[in-house]
Protein 1
Amino acid sequence: MRGVPLAALCMAALLIAGCATTGTTGVKTITYKKPDAYNFRFIGLDTEIDDPSRDRRSYYKIFIDKSEEGRTTTGLESQEKSCDAMLQPNRHLVTVEKWVLDQKTGRYIKLNNIEQPKPNFVYFDLPEDRIVVIEMKTLGDGTSEFVIDYECR
Amino acid sequence: MKIITYIMLSLLLVSVFACSRSGKKEKEPNNSFATAGDISLDARFTGFMDTPNDRDFYRLIVDKPGVIDVNCSGVKGINLAVKVWKGEEEPRLLKWLDDNRKSSPERLANLGVIPGTYYFEVLQSDRDTRKASSESAYELELKSREAISEESEPNDSKDEADSIHQDREITGFYSPAYNRLNNNTENLHREEDWFVVDVVLGSDMPALITVSLSGVTEINAILSLYDADDNLIATADNGGAGEQETITGAGIQKSGSYYIVVASKGYTVNNDEPYTLKVAMLERDSGVEMEKNDDFDSANGIVNNVITGKINSRKDRDLFLYTVARPSAFRIELRPADDMDTICSIYSKDNEKIIDINNSGSGRKEVYPNFFTDKDFYIEVSMRSRDSLPTGEYVLSITPLEETEGMEREPNNDTPQANGIKGNAISGFTSFRGDKDYFRLSYDSRVKERFEIRSGRGGEIRVSVTDPLGYIIKTVDVKGDKKAIFSEMIDKKGYILVESLTESYDYPYTINLRGGE
């Protein structure tokens, strides 16, 4: 299990290059967006849903360092649902809990543990003057992968 | 010689006994008015149905007003009937006694007579096969008495109604069993006693009339009140056999004649025990309901925010009209009699039902704490039909409430009806059992909102916050004066849903918001 977040972090490092632009002099310049209202953003979605009848309305409850921070917006499982927060620069643990709508009761209910994304957590470092964006994609078999990035301008 | 003497004595005894039983005998032919035999009061006359179609006429000359108890004994196996006629030249049929049973007597306990000629025709009913009976005699007896404040038969229709005066009692009998002259299809052959009371209203104020009818053994009575145009004003049919009936506080809007009808249900009869009928009038107090107010057109206006009333029958419904001076919320409270389980319904001015209020049990008040409207509205008071009739009165009060910012406005029972929120505080009532109150949250951006909730004293509520579509995300239960605080993300739009777990109609709940800071 440890390997998965690690792989994600590695992937993030590669993706940071996505913010780089090449100037006329040929020097690459990386421009990151500076924190204002938030310095942490979580985005969650399911990527392998191809049947609308299985595409439930849902949201993720977000815990930072084991303390409830809030929840994402609501939307279909296949849609991006996000949540922002302002955190102290530090190394943090983010844990997610997936909730889906029970149409019979008109109420969101927490998915059973067996149906929760696996893994449902990732550690990340939040530096000064950066906005960390963590994207969690859940596959059809319930496994999830995390992509960690810095938000660019 | 001894034997002959013995036979002679026996014949004499038989003869004496026969004379004493049958009194005077009819003399045939007496099959028409012209050949009618004369009879007298307080004597017995015997006769036979010599042929199946035999009719025996008897003539009675009356020289002073009075009451006659007409009694014709039964003949075994024969269904007798008696017709009573009045007039010498062109006799008019007054009563047709026919209880539709074989071998039973025919009785009319109180035929009212005035000086003149009366005919009594004894015949066989057309309800059974007629047959001759030359061996068994019937016995016709006319007992006379003075009339003392009692009905005078025939009083079977509006035109024949006996006069009754306010605050004076009059008596009558549920007699005879059937009235063959009543061809009203709704109450075919029902014996009815009609009375008329003349009402003179001294002022423009309406009056209330109360009609009381005593109970009579084995009689299940029905009492009705009509105006001169045959409009039914009120009916009392609440008691069972042997129980009294009362029409209480029926409204009299104008001077004139009003008609009271007394009848028994199921053609039951009691020739021996009279009923007592009494009428009382009261000037109408605007704070007291006035029957008939059973429909929207006859609804009583509520003048000073309070009115008392009474449910007079299980089917009785009392309607009141409240005139709204300015848009406002109103507290509607109905305090029933101790033995009454009321249903209070609110209707719009267009006669459309808005809500039934039936949250409490017998003897407990029904409350709608904050009915908001800008138009006149109706309130209907009724009772559950399976309950016994309440003895006491109810009090209905409507209290206009001061406008309070943030106070909910019913109906707000689903998301399309949700109340908007002005300011950072809302309050409301659990208006009825199972009430749901929706409030709409709206912000410029996604915010984390803080909710501070207090339930009304004695109540318990469940408060939920929803997503923009109204699906519940978070729920807390709050009981009594305890305070609950929580925060929840609002995606620009959402709803607060308040559900009642334990109703409190007297104390509102409150929810304070931080305003999305």
Protein 2
Amino acid sequence: MSIAAASQTPPLRGVIRSFGFAGLALIAVIVGLSDVIARAPVGAAGVGPALAAPSAEFFFGTDLLGRDMLSETLHALAITLVQSGFAVLITLAAGGFFGFIAARLPWRSGFVLRWIAGILGAVPALLLAILFIAITDRNFAAAAAGLAAAPLAFARTFDRAREMARSRHAEFARATGIQGATLLRRDLAYEIRDTFLTIAARALAAVTFILSTVSFLGFGAVPPHRDLGLMIAAARATYLDAWWTAAVPGAALILLILFARLAAALDEGERP
Amino acid sequence: MWRFGLRQGAQLALGLAGAILLAAMVAAADDARAGAGAFLHALLAHLGSFLHLDFGTSTISGESALAELSARLPVTLELAGLGGIVALLIGAPLGILLGTERPLRAGAPLIQIVAAIPVFCVGLALMWLAANVLHWPEHGASQFARILQTLALPALTVGAAGAAIVQLSLRRAAAEAMDEPYRRGLRLMGLSAFDINTVFLVPQILAGLLRSLGEITLALFSAAAVAEWLFGWPGAAVLFLKSVALHDWNVAALVLLVFAAIKMIADFAGIVGARALSIQEPRA
């Protein structure tokens, strides 16, 4: 949990987190209904005139190929969210869950893993994701983003789990003969109950950042499956004259990250 | 303090050793396809070369990887440095004001929104503003103004990323320092608020900023990677992007190693500096 969360009054913190989760739920509903809401299928060109400004007919205008910006943004948001969701699962498994287990490994072997996480964490996550993609394939962009965000999640969870393992309740449990595996299961259950949603929201903010930037730089999504980062990259040629081509997908991306940040109760300016 | 410094130094040495291992693994990436044995052999060969400061040659240009990086790294350092200055100019007053002036906390949610904007969106927005509002590049502008215009957008893009962390670390440190009970005690002893703030508060806040030096460096270098690509600066981050795209692993490995080393050294310097500040005896 962030320091902001600690410094804010519990009711306000709760309201902020609820607002964040409500926003994410709303985005999920919109994405679920994207095929119904969108007036045009994915990549349908010539729906309207090229670069038409926002109007009553086209709420968010059209792009260079006459594609409806609202429809394209909805489809791209769906791809971004699905890919980010997959990346979050990898971050949670490789970072959160594994970090927790590593803290209880025998013979201090967990510290070797913590050391590796520290080294990977010293490299910008964006460059790490691009490296993973280059070593594997662009189709693994989501997995690469998840793995790139994992070292930080691992380090945080490991440190928290170490503290938990040294806590008074753990000492008491060991003194009364409770086995390490039982204690681990019990602590893991509490960890999942208390922090799973927060860690998942935090990971969502981080991987969405990474995935969209990777796509923007041309290492991620491949056309015609455009995500928001690739949509913004494609708008570079036109957005100086037609601002909506970049602003609409940009706003969708910012909202997604903002709601994830709020759901994770991140402090203002805190790294996800 | 010496013991603390030595422990941190040992941690830094361990971290650097790990970064060298990581770089050697990247350099041996192509050999992984030939099997575990070939990869291990290549890994050991690269490790040996790295220890002799031989980082191999670029498969694209044929130049040594070190020479390639030496030509590009100053650009990245310049960009990160300029971004750092912008980050301090924006983040420092913001952090201290938000940390010390409670009513201003109402403006903090705005930072939450700014922090949710990816770096490339910031860069694109600045480019749009420069073209459509400021009408840059201006015709007939002086050479100095043109240089300033060229530097301003990348520096602001990188600085915006750093400013978020600078304000956060200063705000946390300032809020913590303001709540310290010793301030009230010193006031009762007759010290003025100015004396208390300059002798006790400022070092405490500075120590808070120094503790985040590694995080700030990482944010600046991450943002520099995007800004270099966006604004066409021929820096080390763009060199990395091109290298990995073309599987020029020697160069990619060296860039990773240098970036990781810079972050680790910044972390070390920050933690030791913060410790030195926090144990410093106040002036009489």
